[in-house]
Structure formats: C-alpha cells, structure tokens
Amino acid sequence: MSDERWKQRFRAARVSLPGWAREAPERAVFRSNVSGTWEIYTWDRGTGEQRQATSRPNGTLMGGLDPYGRELWWFADTDGDEFGVWMRQPFEGGEAVAATPLEPSYPAGLALGRSGRVLVGRSGKHGTSVHLIDPGQEPVTIYEHAENAYLGGLSRDERLIAIGHSEHGDSRHPALRILRPDGSPVAELWDGPGKGVGPSGFSPVEGDPRLLVDHERRGREELLLWNPLTGEEQELVFDLPGEVGASWFPDGSALLVSHGYEARDELFRYDLSTGELARIDTPRGCLGGATARPDGTVEYSFTCAAEPPVIRSTTGAVVLTPPGEPAPPSVPVEDLWVDGPGGRIHALVSRPAGEGPFPTVFDVHGGPTAQDVDAFNPGTAAWIDHGFAVVQVNYRGSTGYGSAWRDALEEKVGLIELEDIKAVRDRVVETGLADPDKLVLAGGSWGGYLTLLGIGTRPDDWSVAVSAVPVADYVAAYEDEMEALQAFDRSLFGGSPAEVPDKYRESSPITYVDAVKVPVLILAGENDPRCPIRQIDNYLARLADRGVPHETYRYDAGHGSLVVEERIRQTEAEITFARKALGLL
Question: Residue 3 carries which DSSP code?
Fold first, then answer.
C-alpha cells in the first residue's frame, strides 16, 4: 500500500453539522476528529472561539447543549461499550461531573428544559425507563416498561413529554404516547401492526402543543402535525416521489423538509400558513443533516461520493472549516438498477481507473434499517485506490424505498437480502465490470452478518470474505446483546430464539459454517454490546476446527472505533487480507 492518499482521507480533519442552544443560538456544539479521535467541541460563534470539551481514549459520540448554552452534556461510556452516564460541564470549560444521580445504563433519550427540568431515558435489564429531574429534586420515574422505548421530546412549556414505545411488542413499528410530568397519559397514537409512528419535535412556539410526527400510512415515510390535547391531525402530503422528514424553523412558521430519493437528498421550506413548498438550492448528493437558524438561513452538511463533507449555509458561505488540508477526492458513483426476485434493486457502483473486469468488493451496509447513499466514504475510496470496483446494494430491508421494501426481509431474515445481493452480483459479472474469480463479500455490523451468511449459503459465489463486528451465531448474540437489540430481534423474527428457534437457526451464519470454503477475516470489538464477542468466538472456533483459512482482528473498543489511526489499521488489514487471498500481492 505505497499510495498514501487513502490514509490522508482518514486523517483529514472533519467536523459535524453544529447544533446550537435554542435560547442562545451563538453557542454551538459539534464533533470533530481533529485530535485524531472523534470528540465533542464547543463553539462561541460570536467570538469564534472553539474548545475541545472531551478527550477520551476511545472518543466521545453523544453531546448537546442546554437551552441557554450554559452547559454541555455528553455521554460517558467505557471503551465504546455504550453503557454509561451523562456528564455535564460549563460551556467555557471546567470539570465535568455526573449530571444526574441515575445509575449507568444504555442511553434512550435526553431532554433539557428551560426551567432546568431534565428528562433522561434509560435502557437496560429493567427494560426502558424515563426519569424526570426538577432542580433540587430527586429523580422521579414517570415511565417504565419491559419492552423497548425511547424519550422523544419535551414541549416548549415543559408540560408534555413524547415517548416512542413498543409495548405492543414490535419495536420496528413503534407507537407514540404523550405524558404529563407526573407520568399521567394524555394521548396515544398508533397506526396498527406494521405501521410505525415517531416524534420529530414539538412546536418551538409558546402555547402551541403540536408535535411533528413521522408516519407511514401510505407505505413510505411521511409527516403529520398532531395536537395531542385535541386529537387533531394534519397530514402533510407533498408531491415528492421519495420519503420525507422534517424539523421546525425556530419561529414555528415553517418546516425544514428533507426529501430522500434514490440515494440522494434535497431540502425544502414548507410554509405552514400558505402551504407553499419551496425548494432550497443544494448540490446533488447526500445531506448529512440540516438545521434552520433564527435568521431564516439553513445550514447543512453536504457530501457526495467524490467530495469530502463540507458544512454550508444557504448564504453561500462555508460555516465551519476544520484545520489542515482537506481530504483528497475520490470518484463519483454510478447508479445501477437490477430486476430482482422482489422488485427493482438499486445499487451504487464505483469504478477504479482502467478497463474491467475488476476485482470487486461488495460492501454491504449495516442496519439493516439503513441504506447506501451518494456520500464520501474513506473506506470505499481506499478499496478503489487499490484497484477494486465497489458495489453497494440497497437490498430489501434497506430504508429509503418504502415500507414494503424495508420490511420484506422479515419473511426470511438475512436470506432475502442475499437474494438481492446475488442478483446484483450476477449482473456486474455478466456486464464485465466484475472479475468472477476476484469477488470480495464485505461489510460491517448487519453487513458483516450478511457476509458470513452469504459465504455459508452461497459458497461458490465469492472468493474472499471480510466481516466486521458481525452477528455470527444468532442465538448466542441474542443472549449477550443489549436489551434494545433483543427487542429489535423479537420484532424482526416474531419472537425470541426460545419461541421461534427454527427461524433463528435458518438465519444464523453458524448454521452454514461447514459449507464455508473461502478465506475469512473477522474484525471484532472486545466491548461490543451489539454484536458481542462470545458469539464471534463460537464461529471462529468452528472455522478453526474445519481448517478454513481465516484471520481475526480484535480491538479494544465497541461496535466500531472513533479513533482515526485505528480505523486506518482496520482498513489496511481488510484490504491486505483480500489482496493476499486473491493473489494480488
């Protein structure tokens, strides 16, 4: 790997879209990797002063400001295990202290009120709970249930609390409940089996109790405004082909609407008084977030496969520029549509220089409730720099293509997705893009799971496998994983392994391990609560018993790493392993 451009892409400083304090918009918070690890920074937009607020060996992911920007709250876990407590520290700097007396847990939402009222969502062995803490008072539990739930927001007057829950037993299609601060119920919204609803923010206007709600009543993600005090609903129907989400403009006069369609995004302003939907001019690509400022401008994070992310404003200005040289660009993606067993499959293809057929990596996305989009990815660019074509498949199970496409995997978990990947694999071989003798199946998390399942159920289709933080033994994974994911799995399979053992067995990679015959690399986090290490060790032991060529890369963190040099080492291990296995070194 003599070409260092791929490492420069990882090392180039990046920043996330800044969030800001509702009552003090000049006080902002963002994430950056400028220190070599993703950490949280505060930013006084008036003076320009920026301060690194957190500094931890494995990085810090979650943080935000109180409404007046006086304090930064951030979540402290242990070495990436996602289990911990909220900390707080002054915006200007100083000692970080435990923000509440609550015991450590997995986070399930946080809401900070103007009065000093705090709401904390917690997940763990007890299920999910929401706790209210008023200034000078002890925490009060206002919600608790064994099924998965999350805190979804606090109204402007702090009298209404939104909670997304799955008391009906289906965390993939949640219901919505509004509570008062004493825990008494106000209203419930649920569209029935297979149709979820979720909170997207209370109105920012004093005295307006309306809640912006995501729904899927017509088979895709759309929006409605709900007044939980009167029960009135206003569905917002736009003449747009894709799925939509939204947030409020700060004065409550309009909504900032995001529209995702065929792996790209665009923004609109929806005027609530006139019903006018006006497009906001943004480049073609992916928007990694957007926020409306009090002056009516919009700030957004833009990226596409060929260009590193940049934080822009509708004024035309670049909002926040990290220090140092920007990351080298990569290549644009091409759209590929393939007729598959469940309908047309959308894939994104990236080509290296030269003429094919190329050694090709199928980089399978995680989730599964996620999708591949036209966005810059240093890992993808690294494969391309080393002569590989990269194919990314938005298989059935992916978001962005309607509810039926997203939920189709429930018929045969894992196997449905692989049918779509197989259809795209065959197409790119047939067209001469991919060398059939040099096909890498790779992915992380759910993508890592599909990688191991794919080389077991379709062993002749692939030449080598690279699987990061995967589900490898589904029953053992269920036993050890965080409780929220156990609820997800029960929803996905229709029960626990004890209740539907045949379904878990049919969808578990370890069931097919005896058929594996290609070299396998597995990357695993020692502290991973999502795809725990024991079930990976079970799979590795079976590979060893059979003498299948394999390597393991273990690292001391959780479900991935926030450390730049660690990500470089992992990428180098992945590409080196694949090139050796394919005879390219």
Answer: -
142: its two tokens: 């206002």
The C-alpha torsion from 577 through 581 and 582 to 585, rounded to 10°, is 60
Percent of the chain scored above 70 by pLDDT? Answer: 99
Q: Which residue has the tokens 């200007």?
A: 92
Instruction: Give the integer Cα–Cα distance in Å for 284 and 337.
Output: 19
Which tokens belong to 244?
A: 């939509």
Q: Does residue 2 have a pLDDT over 70? A: no
Indicate the helix (H) or strand (E) that contains 44: strand 39-44
d(CA 38, CA 55): 9
Q: Is residue 499 classed exposed, middle or buried when 0-12, 13-18 and 19+ CB atoms within 10 A define those classes?
A: exposed
CB 365 within 8 A of CB 442: no
Name every residue whose Cβ is closer than 8 Å to that of residue 98 and which is 6 or more positions away in sequence. 85, 86, 87
460 burial (CB, 10 Å; 0-12 / 13-18 / 19+) is exposed
Distance of CA 577 to the CA centre of its chain: 27
Peptide bond into 357 cis (omega under 30): yes
Kindly state the DSSP code that residue 352 receives in the 8-state scheme.
-
Contact 585, 393 (CB under 8 A): no
Spatial distance between the Cα atoms of 430 and 325, rounded to a whole number of angstroms: 41
Asked if 509 and 456 touch (Cβ cutoff 8 Å), the reply is yes
Phi, psi of 132 (to 5 degrees): -105, 130
- Amino acid letter, 192: G
- Name which of 251, 265, 331 is nearest 297 in CA terms: 251
pLDDT tens track for 557-573:
999 999 999 999 999 99
CA 547 vs CA 426, 454, 552: distances in Å: 29, 19, 14
Q: Are 441 and 451 in contact (CB under 8 A)?
A: yes
Radius of gyration of the chain (CA): 24
Q: Which two tokens stand for residue 535?
A: 């079930």
The string of pLDDT tens digits covering residues 270-281 is 999 999 999 999
Q: Say how far apart CA 575 and CA 399 lie, in whole Å.
A: 28
